[in-house]
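# step 3/5: fold
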Amino acid sequence: MEGESARAYVARLASAKAAAIAGAVGEGVLAADTTVAILIDGRERILEKPQDARDAKAMLQLLSGRTHIVYTGISFCWEGQEWRHVEQTSVEFAEMKEHEVIAYVNSHEPLDKAGAYGIQGLASKFISRIDGCFYNVVGLPIHQVYKIFNAAGVITRDESPLLSS
């Protein structure tokens, strides 16, 4: 929606996905949505999946040498209740040379990724620093999912076969 923050955007999308599916299947449903946001001239710009190679190139040129935020909205619907969380991770991109941007776009890896990159793949060499959850940048902050499942009562105790209490 126009004027919606990246944080609100991913929260809304994750919640809508989970609610739609939960209503149809009557089971617990976990949904998530991830996006990239960068401040340009004091305004937050959301970078979703690129529409094509040109769009991917433009996004990567925008990220090059800058820090951006990756947001993932999580929604878990179960037994008529919803648990929500938005995780954020700051990611610093190193400066990318023109030929590096072109080579990365030509790999086709950025074409189905929010912000036109996958930290777990070829783009890892361009990430100079992250502050926050690595798995959030991949697309699902596992620790937060674990916390939500605990809060919902889905996980009641740790059943490790190696340790006993």
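# step 4/5: annotate
The radius of gyration is 18 Å.
# step 5/5: archive (pending)
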